[in-house]
Design a protein that fits this description.
Elements: H1 9-23, E1 30-36, E2 42-48, E3 51-53, E4 56-62, H2 66-73, E5 76-83, E6 88-98, H3 101-110, H4 113-121, H5 131-144, E7 156-161, E8 165-170, E9 178-185, E10 188-194
Antiparallel strand pairs: 1-2, 1-5, 3-4, 4-7, 5-6, 6-7, 6-8, 8-9, 9-10
């Protein structure tokens, strides 16, 4: 779907995301997540998109991590997905809400066992004295949960960015890019073409 054909940002997102999944060599679901701390300091990091529908865009994290702390104090975020092979970028901004426990449990259970063990072992974003300490903690958790069943830690869950603004960017020759913005409101989505 081309920008000039798009009347709905979710339909355009779905079309571009499907094209990225077919074209990108790896991690078409990688996206930058920007948050703001209690002190108003911005931070950005890469996360993986784990759900996308009309309710919003979902990622999972340790809720006691730096991004978890940021979102607890300022539940607003910005996302950016960029696919170099396609020359496309999508920016998404809006408030952040928790996913349901059932959704978090289902996604956690779908992860590889070692990833589930790592979620228990890691005090994400906190200082770590050595790699050996982390590996020892993973081994301790593996002993605690010896089988395939590893429950979701209470401090690990998902967050959904509920879009209020989208921007779709298509690379153009001589930096004359195409940019289209959708802003949500009571009457639906307002579509505006932007200068590059």
């Amino acid at each position: 779907m081309e920008l000039d054909e798009a009347g709905d940002p979710f339909d355009l997102f779905n079309a571009w995301y499907a094209a990225a999944q077919a074209a990108e060599p790896a991690l078409a679901d990688a996206m930058a997540l920007a948050t703001v701390s209690r002190a108003g300091e911005p931070a950005v990091r890469m996360v993986l998109l784990k759900g996308a529908d009309r309710r919003g865009f979902v990622f999972y994290t340790n809720l006691e991590s730096r991004k978890g702390d940021d979102l607890a104090s300022h539940p607003q975020a910005a996302l950016c997905l960029y696919w170099k092979s396609l020359g496309r970028q999508i920016r998404i901004e809006g408030p952040v809400e928790p996913v349901s426990d059932a959704d978090a449990d289902a996604y956690f259970a779908s992860r590889p066992r070692d990833s589930r063990l790592g979620a228990w072992a890691s005090d994400q974003s906190r200082p770590l004295d050595s790699r050996a300490t982390l590996e020892a903690r993973v081994a301790e958790v593996a002993e605690r949960y010896p089988g395939e069943s590893v429950p979701r830690p209470p401090n690990w869950s998902g967050r959904r960015v509920v879009p209020q603004r989208f921007e779709f960017w298509q690379e153009g020759a001589f930096r004359l890019h195409d940019r289209v913005e959708f802003v949500g409101g009571a009457a639906g989505w307002t579509r505006t073409r932007l200068y590059p």
